[in-house]
Write a structure and sequence with these properties.
Distance between the termini of chain A: 53 Å
Shape of chain A: globular
Oligomer: heterodimer
Number of strands of chain B: 5
CATH topology of the largest domain in chain A: Uridine Diphospho-n-acetylenolpyruvylglucosamine Reductase, domain 3
Distance between the termini of chain B: 47 Å
CATH class of the largest domain in chain B: Alpha Beta
Largest sheet of chain A: 5 strands, antiparallel
Strand content of chain A: 15-25%
CATH architecture of the largest domain in chain A: 2-Layer Sandwich
Largest sheet of chain B: 5 strands, mixed
Number of helices of chain B: 5
Number of helices of chain A: 11
CATH superfamily of the largest domain in chain B: Beta-grasp domain
Helix content of chain B: 25-40%
Low-confidence stretches of chain A: none
Shape of chain B: globular
Number of strands of chain A: 12
Mean pLDDT of chain A: 96
Largest interface: A-B, 40 and 38 residues
Order of helices and strands of chain A: EHEHEEEHHHHHHEEEEEEEHHH
Strand order of the largest sheet of chain B: 2-1-5-3-4
Helix content of chain A: 25-40%
Number of domains of chain A: 3
CATH architecture of the largest domain in chain B: Roll
Radius of gyration of chain A: 19 Å
Amino acid sequence: MKPASFDHLLPTSLHEALEMLNTHAPDARPLAGGQSLVPMMNFRLARPTVLVDLNRISDLAYISDAGDHLAIGAMTRERTIENSGLVRTATPLLYDATLHIGHLPIRSRGTIGGSLSNADPAAEYPATVLALDATLVAQSVRGERTIPAAEFFDGVMTTTLEPDEILTEIRMPKAPPGSGSALVEISRRHGDFALAGVAAQITLDGNSVTDIRLAACGVGPGPIRLAESEMILRERGLSDDALAAAGGAAAAATDPDGDVHATAAYRRKLAGVMTKRAVGKAAARARQSA
Amino acid sequence: MTAKRSITVIVNGECLTGEAEPRMLLADFLRDELRRTGTHVGCEHGVCGACTVIIDGDAVRSCLMFAVQADGAEISTIEGLATNGEMHPLQKLFSEHHALQCGFCTPGMLMTAIDLVHNSNDHSPGAIRIGMSAALCRCTGYVGIIDAVMEYARQVHGDPAVTGDETGGGRHDG
């Protein structure tokens, strides 16, 4: 099918974009990479009457080293993130997550800000920013505010962004030295949305776990921080028993829906399995880097 | 603002101008307005890859972009591959390896493969399989396609490393 008619506004500065969004809210939608919004428009599941196209705002595409974190502009393409040596060394979990997003031609256009704002429950970036306690920066004509990742997601494809706000920057804490990370997921075919996935970032001291962060995707209305599993592993280390308990706690923390691709029970079970695999892979990488 | 606008793009080195409403997809603009019908339209939601073209160096889905967004862009399509009636090396390899039957997916396959082979660092068999999973074929079973792209990668880069990047350009842990 083809999209319904809309007005296309093409600001070249953030200031201009915010003014346009404010004028046309709530009917206007910001257009980032368009890899989710455009298909929804093609099927007329979304019919915005005004698109504020952010693709000509070059100031919103950057990856910069800001000391203890990377500051990433919301319009930075996934492909740019994938090819960034800085991302690979400073926030390897973000690199791992990016490789799981769609396919290369999707990553050519898709942006980190667009993916987060779209908040698909199965998407990789929401789980990644939740696991890392990233800070998200939103701007509107009313000013700027920072939103902790834990307060950004608000149910299926919903965020706490106001209709006149644009996500402008993502502040990703750098991985501590000697830590390891992994995002693992199961999908029917490569590039499909995950049936279940888990992002893990882990710091080890010998066999004990000094810091661990886990978040799941695809198994609830949004990304889910697996706090109970984290606590088990922090207290009990990486023994087989502890991993099994952490997997069980992860499954219990999820709230998946069943659909044509997988039943709810299967997704829940996968959440546990993915937790164990993600922790195992992240721990192996942590040992390698130690 | 929903009125038609004049859009100028460079397609395979040729500067072309056409008109598009904001809602016109780039794929439809190329085909219906510029009459470059080599690019095919399959699923219209970014899954099948038939409409893949190369814009400013990167393969993208032309069904997931509006023509108005491409104003001023440089676009490579399948029509630009052959030179003076001589097939592009990748086209020859597709022929030799029987990498097409009905041919509907082939334009997207070729543009995907060119980006993959020329712009990624990992040309191991695993990475090429993952990369080419961006485009769907309902005829061949993919073996010929993968063989053709792997041989093209060898022509361009020499023999690929026996083992590629651990992550295989996106291989998951399944």
